[in-house]
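To whoever is on call:

I kicked off a structure prediction for a single chain this morning and the downstream step that reads the tokens threw a length-mismatch warning. I double-checked the sequence; it's 153 residues and nothing unusual in it as far as I can see. Pasting both halves so you can look.
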Amino acid sequence: MKNIYLIAVFFIGIVATQAQDLKWHTDVKEAIAIGNKEHKPLLLFFTGSDWCGWCIRLQKEVLLTPEFAKWAKDNVVLVELDYPRRTPQTPEIKKQNNDLQQAFAIQGFPTIHFANGIDKDGKVNFEGLGSTGYVPGGPTAWLAVADGIIKKK
């Protein structure tokens, strides 16, 4: 019985480690450069990480799963645009996130936009591919929606 427990703990640790290996960028210009170099669209995750219940639920049910981690590494560059109430942010990140909230006309959280970015002469432009939010049904259902958005381009 002890061996089964140890094996289960080992596999849970591997799954948790895979999900933590993802790099979520907070600097959109850096993410654009990576996306252009790797020919991948950006996944822009607009979230209220310390107060938004649906954002936390999306994180737990989809964004922290091994299925999402594998899909993300192959398909997108991850960008977290956070609007916390208690967690401090630098003035630069706050300004960038507020500007992007206006540019993408974000009305509620969580919202995820898929876009290709262009940083030309210090100005950022986006080619929007589509958007989604919380999708019930776990990673399989959410990834089907995401694939429908990024594969149609």
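Update from on-call: the warning came from a stale cache, not from the record. Cleared it. Sanity check on the structure: The CA atoms of residues 119 and 125 lie 6 Å apart.
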